[in-house]
Design a protein that fits this description.
381 residues; binds fe (ii) ion
């Protein structure tokens, strides 16, 4: 078996385990209004592999064209454009499960002939959904899912500070012919970055709490009860852990930075500051964050540039010089080069190991509140 075929099998185990956490009735819920009902994703991760491989790698007749189409694409509507379908509009779990089983069987029979690039796309696409499904599951009632309650965290405010990053060259993207990357990771190029200062730690809940006390709206993951703040974790609520990173939207992150007289880092600045960083709290290690000062710093003394929450940048998502869309998946990146999506870097506790590579780029709308994403600030020296 090819290495990528093993990776696909491991990724399937990962998404299967996620769906196994759910109370069966929850499969027809839509926990996030701007996304499909969960049943869609059960079919989507398989239909995607099927459509990709049998239409673009090895021509194979369809055994279920209706499902191939129904489960082909997710959605990312403009504000106010949420879908209005009903649970009864979707097929039964059994029908989807039998479609899925056949897709896997047929793909596995072909796997030796499938070019590695297609298998890599299938693996990473599925693992991205393992993360974005966690965002959706996060918003189900706790009783609809089984898992470990958040680890109790002590209330421990900690002092953040700014670290100076000297002027230097940021290396972005990846060279062609050196392992898998998505279309938006090419071409490799460099940028001269003047000296700047950046937060040593991700902005913590305690720092953001000051902003909320000054009148800012609380982050989406916070709940107030009788004047006390709690954090809504994946499987339970805990008193707001003051030393965990705050997860906010891009708009909230920008507003906080402006309030402090600073800004969000650019993608280039992020690359400079993250040099020599190892991953902390990533690759499905936990469901929830850990304190912002855990782990070892990178070369410049900055903590957690990879893992424990994506980080918003001020960079609008766009193509690198030399960008070429994948002919078999033309919309993967290009559909989002619309000036409305911002680059996120790093990774969250639910980001798979393969996507913790330096060149990986993620992106979301400025006001999408469901992502495990925080931020840090930059200022001129
Ligand atoms: Fe997808």
């Amino acid at each position: 078996m090819k290495r990528e075929a093993h990776a696909l099998e491991a990724a399937r185990v990962r998404t299967d385990a996620l769906f196994d956490l759910l109370d069966p009735a929850a499969l027809y819920e839509r926990p996030v209004p701007e996304r499909h009902r969960l049943i869609f994703y059960l079919g989507h991760v398989e239909a995607f592999d099927w459509n990709l491989i049998t239409r673009h790698a090895i021509e194979t007749p369809s055994f279920h064209p209706e499902f191939d189409k129904l489960f082909a694409f997710g959605i990312d509507p403009e504000p106010g454009g949420a879908p209005a379908d009903r649970p009864s509009d979707w097929p039964s779990r059994e029908e989807v499960a039998s479609y899925n089983a056949r897709v896997r069987r047929e793909i596995d029979e072909l796997s030796r002939e499938i070019p590695s690039q297609f298998l890599n796309v299938a693996v990473e696409h599925r693992l991205m959904h393992a993360e974005t499904l966690a965002y959706l599951f996060h918003h189900l009632p706790f009783e609809s899912k089984n898992g470990p309650a958040p680890e109790a965290a002590e209330a421990r405010p900690l002092v953040n500070s700014m670290v100076e990053i000297p002027a230097g060259v940021a290396v972005l993207g990846r060279p062609r012919g050196d392992g898998f990357g998505w279309d938006n990771e090419f071409d490799r190029h460099t940028a001269e970055v003047p000296a700047f200062r950046i937060s040593r730690y991700k902005i913590s809940n305690s720092e953001y709490l000051e902003f909320v006390r000054q009148g800012a709206a609380p982050p989406h993951f916070w709940v107030e009860r009788d004047g006390r703040w709690f954090l809504r974790g994946m499987f339970g609520e805990v008193p707001l852990p003051l030393d965990w990173p705050v997860y906010v939207t891009h708009a909230e992150a920008s507003a906080y930075a402006a309030w402090r007289g600073a800004a969000l880092p650019t993608e280039e600045q992020f690359h400079r500051a993250s040099e020599g960083s190892g991953a902390v709290n990533a690759d499905f290690e936990r469901w929830d964050p850990i304190p912002v000062d855990a782990g070892a710093p990178g070369r410049h003394g900055v903590f957690q540039m990879i893992g424990n929450g994506w980080e918003w940048t001020s960079t609008v998502f766009g193509p690198f010089p030399g960008f070429e869309r994948f002919p078999f998946y033309p919309g993967y990146s290009a559909d989002f080069f619309d000036g409305k999506h911002f680059v996120m870097k790093g990774g969250s506790p639910r980001t798979a190991w393969c996507m913790l590579r330096e060149s990986f780029r993620n992106w979301f709308r400025a006001d999408y509140p469901y992502v495990y994403a925080g931020f840090r600030m930059v200022e001129a020296p």
